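Record type: monomer structure entry
Structure origin: computed from sequence
Chain ID: A
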Amino acid sequence: MSETKTNQGGWRTNKWIRAAIPALLLHCSIGTVYCWSVFSKEIADYIGFGKPAVEWAFSFAIFFLGMSAAFLGNVVEKDIHKSSLIATICFTAGMLLTGFFIYYGGGHKGSPLALVGIYVSYGFIMGIGLGTGYLSPVKTLMLWFQDKKGLATGLAVAGFGAAKAIASPIMTKLLDKWEDGSGIYKMFLILGCVYFVMMFVGHLLLKKPEGWHEPAKGEKKPGIMETIKTKPITNYIGIWLMFYINITCGLALISQEKAIVKCIGLAAAAGTISSISAIFNAGGRLGFSAWADKLKDRNTIYKLIFILSIAFTALVILTRGIVNGEGNGLLIFLVLALIFLVNAGYGGGYSNVPTLLSDHYGMGSISAIHGITLSAWAFAGLTGNQMASFIVNHSGEWIDHAGQQVNPVGYQNVLYATGILYVIALVVCLVLVRPSGKAAEGK
């Protein structure tokens, strides 16, 4: 479908209004899940539980994001209007219910009901909204932007990454607005209403191109496994594994980012660095995807991400940058470069998955296959943060740094695990994943 043709007929056939803008409205809303570190301590304090107990809500949210995407991929495939409505209702209902259970926990300190209610609301209900909301716009974007699929999906998925940079300062102001601490549940109630409006508008606007034909109920359509088996099964296993490892390593480092920044003497700039890393995350989603459109094989992007991640991880390991970084300009630069690079690669790994899959398996069942692949995100959500926490809590030594407890050696040791995993991912990328797109066609 040519660009001229899609622009005829006004806004109803405009690819920006029917695909790009609704995708940004949906992804800029659900992407605020990555603001968790902004308010997790406040939740724990307000309901009377330790931060580790509350942290499971975020892990559950990422897990159910991936699993709902895997199991509801066929719903997205058949009816994006229904799936975007499910996303709107589940995500905003999850936020509002989370606010309610925080409010309840504030009046009943240490109540298991409040904690379980937050797990169910933020983790399960909101997680379903995250999974369906993440998937719904992706195929639509690729259909409207046939010649620049990577740029289109990167633009929307960049909204998911940029949501943290946009929402974090707003959340901080809302938290500080009420001195009695009640800002934590009021924030959820206020933003739940705001995101409902944004997502519902996105739901109403989102539409596939008129010329795209989805098989009718009576038509036979290849199943997911049948489509995957059009290539050697090891090809799909390779894509799943390198996606899983990239997300696991990203979450492992990002979850310790704030503490690492304190260790190198930049505690006062932690908020600014967090915003910059969010920009790198969003920039990686858009930049790597747009770059991939110009390459013969999109898998080249993953090779680049893993090689750069291995190189900078090795540099920080060899120089013991996290342990020795305070007051040393070069080491501070290396540590920050690693943080920003991992954020960019983490985002770029996300945005390239749907287009890489479409190059390998076609557009016919892309939402369902993409959904199954996002199960890697689900398991990475459980393993990435927890792996880093285990290493930090079982190695090194906790010391007082400017009145706060940190474990520089423990954070440094996390890099040994992520470095090994990045090497494994690169091997998988080189050995199991076959050339795709123009490279496979011999162009």
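Annotation 1: The beta strands are 399-401, 404-406.
Annotation 2: The chain has 19 helices and two strands.
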